[in-house]
Amino acid sequence: MLDIMRQNAQGWGIKVLFGIIILVFIFAFGMSGFDGNTDPVIAYVNDEPIPTQEFVEIYRQTAEILREQDPNIDPDQLQSPEFKKAILNQIINSKILEAEARRLGISISNSELYYEISKIPAFTTADGKFDKSRYQNYLQGRQMSASTFENDMRNSNLIQKIQEYVAIPAVPTEAQARALFNWAGERSQIDYYYVSGADFLDKAKIEDSAIEAYYKANPNSFTVPTRSKIEYISFTPEELSVYEDVSPEELSSYYAANKDHFEQDEQIKARHILLLVDENASSADIKKAENKIQKILAKIKAGGDFAKLAEKYSEGPSKTKGGELGWFSRGAMVKPFEDAAFKLKKGQISEPVRTRFGFHIIKVDDTRESGQKAFDQVETEIRNTIAQEKAADSISSKLDHAIDLLASGMKLDAVGEELGVAIQKSEKATLENLTRAFGMTEDAAKTIIGLPKGSSTEMPVAVDNGYLIAQKVEEIPASLNPLEEVKKDINDFLAQQQAMEMAKIKATVIMGKLSTPETAEQELKSIKKDLKTSEPFGRDGFIPGLGMNPKLTEAAFASTKNTWLKQAFELPGGYIVARLDETIPPSEETWESQKQAILTSLERQQANEMINSFMTELRSKAKVEVVRPDILNN
């Protein structure tokens, strides 16, 4: 029956049992907590028994579905009491719903049942017709009677039917859907003044006594954990690929056979000189920037080195690289910049281009036509791909050979020499380092850390894309770094904290002046040249170019245009003072394209709320007794 469940988990009654669990719990498959020797009943619902075997079987089936959905989920989580209780709760709810359906006279007729069975893909031919022989073969192959299978189907469809009856009133109006759409689709943008903590670092003064006090109060921060020195051989396609030879013929054949893979859009390689000018800058500021950019352009036309002039005059982050932007395709840059850049030929330089960032002078260093990438562009990529494919094919044989050699008593370095692969070393192997660097589970890392000195793993350890075998060389006990070794780090940390506090104070003072009518105009004039406008942002807390701050976005959406927010907000490296610049409603076109999907989603949400409320009421009236809680807590 499990195969059918997998194929139809979203389409028929199994979703009643597993839907909520699959949404809430993303765990893996494991059954170490059950040995089959439990009492026959795990719980009673209104004196009706729930057999332990039924619970165990549904547990297995649910876990298998979850594991197939995400093979990388943590196996240990499945043993948690929370997961097991969730499974049992769903079974209890199903029993209660079945009983309520019987009380209300709701049933599944034979014709309804057979219709549902006839729709299961495992029992239909290619043209969608029910094939009785497939149905019978399926039941025979799993030693299941038709009556057992059909009873399961009848009960699950019965539960689904009563849920559908309960949810009949769930009919959202278009006005409700539009209100939800407007709320979710609305965008805001802010004007803000940024106070950097870095501007106050030279004013931060940290006393030795403060450093010593912090050191004593936070010993865990300066303790080097127990770590191991290990040697290992990595059996992954990436590591073993360096030992594989790839011939010119193989390279050319792969290139010819995978032309579609090497298609590219038109690209240019460019650099620019940027003078920052706010979108809302005054006419005087714009004119000043135009004059300056024209003078820079004149130096370029007179033979000046573009890269050196970019380093000297550009105000963008690429100035340290001579204005270099690298290769990019259409859509990567703002539209005015893109339009100007893609009109240029190799070596050409643009006239000044205005974007929302300011004025740019663009130079195109190179171009690539759309179409297939040249062989020399992708030769290294192809070589690595073929070598890794060859290495992947050899992993099993190399690994088996290595295990045999280790079992015979051979040390790891001799194994590496025999296999012709390099022995690698890790000087600071800890649980955290091993799990992060290799993608192994915590249990696997514990196996390596727990090795006696000089011994090797008896079995290969699974890592990302392969395996490794390891040998512990030395164990280094935990130790506390001396104060002198970490004194500078503590000083820098405390100085940054102090600088951020000074930045917060300055931002708060500015905010106070901007919010006070008597001082607002003068304060705004003093910061106007450094006032910036953000990209539009939604309610999820993320502001492009500034970072994540849910409280800031919440305050912005609750504010009114040109009103300064009532507090300074912390962002990476500093604080900002902000006001709402504009609230942008979603477009009518977007509403029309999404209206039906939102109505459907809202209907589903309302239906779930009704079903949950109905289920809560039934559950409160039901007599539920769990007689084997130890099974859930194992």
Strand content: 15-25%
Structural class: alpha+beta
Terminal Cα span = 27 Å
Helix content: 40-55%
Averaged pLDDT: 86
Sequence of strands across the biggest β-sheet: 16-3-20-19
Tell me the Rg in angstroms: 34 Å
Outline the biggest β-sheet. 4 strands, antiparallel
Give the low-pLDDT segments. 1-38
Query: Helical segment tally?
Result: 23
- The overall strand count is 21
What sort of overall outline do the alpha carbons produce when their principal axes are compared? extended
Which secondary structure elements does this structure contain, and how are they paired or packed?
Elements: H1 2-8, H2 14-24, E1 41-45, E2 48-51, H3 52-69, H4 81-104, H5 110-118, H6 132-141, H7 146-166, H8 174-185, E3 187-196, H9 208-217, E4 223-224, E5 227-235, H10 237-240, H11 248-257, E6 263-264, E7 267-276, H12 283-301, H13 306-313, E8 324-329, H14 335-341, E9 353-355, E10 358-368, E11 371-372, H15 375-407, H16 412-419, E12 424-429, H17 431-438, H18 442-449, E13 461-463, E14 466-476, E15 479-480, H19 483-515, H20 517-527, E16 532-533, E17 542-543, E18 547-548, H21 550-558, E19 569-571, E20 574-584, H22 588-621, E21 624-626, H23 629-633
Antiparallel strand pairs: 1-2, 1-21, 3-16, 3-20, 4-15, 5-12, 5-14, 6-11, 7-8, 7-10, 9-10, 13-14, 17-18, 19-20
Structure description:
The chain is of the alpha+beta class. It is 50% helix and 17% strand. It is built from 23 helices and 21 strands. The protein has a 4-stranded antiparallel β-sheet. The chain starts with a helix and ends with a helix.
